[in-house]
Amino acid sequence: MPDLWLPGAERYPLSDTAPTDDEYPPKGLWHITWDKNASAAKPAPLVPFNNLVKYFTGAGKASAPHLLWDPFTGRVAQFYPASSRSKSVADRPGGTRTNRAGKVLIQVEQLFFPHCQVGGKAYATMRDTPAKGLGEILDWMRSWGVPDVWPMGAPTWRSNRDEVTWATRGGHYGHSQVPENDHTDPGPMPAWPGAKPSPLAPVFPGRGRFGPGKANGDVLRLGQQLVKRGFGKHYKVGPSRSWGEADRLNVEAFQRAQGWTGTGADGYPGPETWRRLFN
Ligand SMILES: [Zn+2]
Fold it and tell me: For 37-95, how does the pLDDT look when each residue is reduced to its tens digit (9 = 90+)?
């Protein structure tokens, strides 16, 4: 059996362990602690790690995850063994048991809020952090069978909670992708170190395939993927092979959901937009 406890993590075992529903595929589930509201104009210092340890072993016990991870130092605290459910998502009566729906369902609270300040620098998303220690956490999750994929796509600030995908596909999910929940964390995540690109992800066909006057299968594929990811609201009829303003507006909405602004959110897909859309 793989390690019940992440090697190197500090252990703060909570006593109320409970089994998961192991007829479902193995999952990782990601959060940010979001314990302060800051902004680009008004960043705020990151909350001390020990405050969160105290919270999840005290007043916040009822929503404790498996792991609390500091992406700036690599420090990790663990509250439940991999074989137990943890408690960081809401679970309404009936339907999927959100904290249990996996052979394992390993939840990680990332010590982070948007525009937190560390060492004089502010960070808008988890993707901007050094993500120190992420590789070790993923290795441990892989040892429990969690595959390196985001079945609903890599998280954005927008939610997308497809119950069939959740019930049937193993891999990583954001809180923004869990049925019966309303939180939109964790936002854009760091790229998975050591992950193989999804065999389903098409190669970026080049900027020249998109824009006014262009009509081809890549425009259609782009539109279909935007709809699948919940960014299709500007289509009146649906995606087609011909580029139109609705395509541009939907791409722009997806880019803004990554936290991008200015030319980063101009509505024309580049390689990074494409990669995030299909992975
Ligand atoms: Zn959350």
Answer: 999 999 999 999 999 999 999 999 999 999 999 999 999 999 999 999 999 999 999 88
Ligand 1 center to 88 CA (angstroms): 7
| Global confidence as pTM | 0.77
Report the separation in Å between the CA atom of 237 and the middle of ligand 1, taken as the mean of its atom positions.
34
Angle at 76 between CA 72 and CA 81, to 5 degrees: 155
Separation of CA 184 and ligand 1 centre (Å): 7
Q: Say how many Å lie between the CA of residue 91 and the centre of ligand 1.
A: 13
Residues of the chain by 3-state class (helix, strand, coil), percent to 5: 25, 15, 60
The domains found in the chain, sorted by start residue, are 10-177 (3.40.80.10), 207-278 (1.10.101.10)
> Ligand 1 mean position to 12 CA, how many Å?
20
Rg, the chain, Cα only: 19
Q: Residue 190 in contact with residue 129, Cβ under 8 Å?
A: yes
CA of 236 to the centre of ligand 1 (A): 33
173-204 pLDDT, tens digit per residue, is 999 999 999 999 999 999 887 665 556 678 89
